[in-house]
Amino acid sequence: MNRRQKLTYAGIGLAKVSVILIMATAINAAILYKTLPADKTQWRSLTEKLETYHAQTTVITTNVETFTQQLQAFDAALQQQQTAIDTALSLQTQIIANTAQLETQNQQIATLHRQLSRYDDKFQQLKPLPPPAVIPKTGVIKKPTPTRVSNQRPKASISAPFSLLSLQWRGAVRIAVVAPLNATSLTQVALVSKGDSFQGWKITAITDSGIALQQAKRSTNIKVTS
Asked: pLDDT band for position 214 (50/70/90)?
């Protein structure tokens, strides 16, 4: 029998005692009523005894109710404690199961480490295979590849056919001032622009530093004479 059942039975016992006392009080009152004396003094004494019995019965009843309420509260507390205990036991069971599973996994990991260590030892013991032997071919003579001689001659540098004296702007058109190499008078000086020809050379471009010339398949550049 647990504590809860003992407390419940104790409350029931007190309730029974209270009922018995109330019944005894009622019986005593009935007996006294049948034997009521004619004397007022005795009547008053009996009335006081009845009131005393009634007060005692009320106190006992109140005590029983109070104790019953305390039993109910204590029972609720016991119920909460029991729930907490059940929860703790469940958690303890889960912890034990998880601990056992963890130990099993640790054993498996240790086994895998041992296997890897054995494989590593075997791998270290393996020697690299020598390269395959090269068998020389006999009876075959390779002829040296003849060196091709380029027939192209280096391009000879083309000397400037005339002098570039200066570059000028005439509106939006750029003008080059040119003259023969051995010019002796200003009448030999000429003004040319892109697309013009001078002494058999065509001016193909005029830049900030000089002009580009072309004659047949030949081309050259002339810079401003300093």
From this structure: very high
d(CA 193, CA 167): 10
CA 1/CA 5 separation, integer angstroms: 6
Task: Say whether pLDDT at 150 is over 90.
Answer: no
Token readout for 189 is 């000086």
Angstrom distance (rounded) from CA 21 to CA 43:
23
> Region 96-103: what's the mean pLDDT?
89
- What pLDDT does 204 receive? 95
Helix (H/G/I), strand (E/B), else coil: 163:
strand
Q: How far apart are CA 179 and CA 165, in angstroms?
A: 7
Per-residue confidence band for 65, with pLDDT thresholds at 50, 70 and 90: confident
- What DSSP line would sit under 96-156, residue for residue? HHHHHHHHHHHHHHHHHHHHHHHHHHHHHHPPPPPPPPPPPP-S--PPPPPPPPP-PPPPP
Tell me which of 73 and 16 has the higher pLDDT. 73
Hey, what are 64's tokens?
Answer: 């029983």
Whole-number Cα distances in Å, 199 to 150, 169, 214, 220:
34, 22, 11, 14
Paired residues of 132 in beta bridges = none
Which amino acid is present at 63?
N
Q: What's the confidence (pLDDT) of residue 31?
A: 64
